[in-house]
Structures are given as structure tokens and as C-alpha cells.
Specification:
There is one protein chain. By secondary structure, the protein is mostly beta strands. The protein has a domain of 78 residues: Immunoglobulin-like (Sandwich). 0% of the residues lie in helices and 37% in strands. It contains no helices and six strands. The strands form two sheets. A four-stranded antiparallel beta sheet has the order 3-2-5-6, with no helix packed on it. Strands 1-4 form a two-stranded antiparallel ribbon. Strand 5 and strand 6 form a beta hairpin. The radius of gyration is 25 Å and the shape is elongated. The mean pLDDT is 81.
């Protein structure tokens, strides 16, 4: 997650009228659109980044408001790293002994029996 601070450096409140995004796999969150930011105050625009594969991502985020400079354009670029997914299948034969109430399963970084 990338947090972008939008600070009102003016002397009057401003209202964020919209947030638009261009580029593949780029999104925003945090509910900034429609927010009024008082003079000297800030709001956080969140840009989640969770690629599922190694890829280069680039695009733009445009924040529109009623400020004198009514739009701010943020260039976004990053490189994702592939994640590894693991799955495990467990099979066992229930114990025939009385008094057995459960099993413990252990995980190891190498194969074999421990």
C-alpha cells in the first residue's frame, strides 16, 4: 500500500471533486473524492499495489478539486515481484487406539519425515 498525502497549503478549504486513474492494475482507495480538506490540513489517498506476478506497472492518478490549480497529476510506476503459492494435501488413517483426541501437523522447510 502506498499512502499519498494530499495537503491543502492554501488559506481556504478545498473540495476534492474527483480522482481518476489510468493504467493497468492501478487503483485508489480511502474515500478522498468528495472530501473537504480544511486549510493547512491533509487527507490520505491510498494506492494499493499487490501484483500477482512479476510485472511493471505504470499510469497516472489525477486528483481534481476547486483549488486554484484544480488538478494534480501523480505518475505511478512500480515493479511487482511474483509470489509463490503453496498447497498441501493431508491424508491419514485414524488411530484405532482409545484416547486419541486429535493430531498435530508440523510444517518443515525440507521434505521427509521428522
Amino acid at each position: 500500500m502506498i499512502a499519498v498525502t494530499l495537503k491543502n497549503t492554501g488559506n481556504a478549504s478545498l473540495t476534492v471533486s474527483g480522482v481518476t486513474v489510468s493504467g493497468t492494475n492501478i487503483t485508489t482507495s480511502g474515500g478522498v473524492s468528495g472530501t473537504t480538506i480544511a486549510a493547512g490540513q491533509s487527507a490520505i489517498l491510498e494506492v494499493p499495489f499487490a501484483p500477482k506476478q512479476a510485472e511493471t506497472v505504470s499510469g497516472k492518478i489525477v486528483v481534481s478539486s476547486n483549488a486554484a490549480d484544480s488538478t494534480v497529476t501523480l505518475s505511478v510506476g512500480s515493479v511487482g515481484v511474483a509470489s509463490t503459492t503453496y498447497s498441501v494435501g493431508l491424508n491419514w488413517t485414524p488411530s484405532a487406539s482409545s484416547g486419541v483426541t486429535g493430531y498435530c501437523v508440523y510444517w518443515a522447510t525440507s521434505s521427509g519425515t521428522t
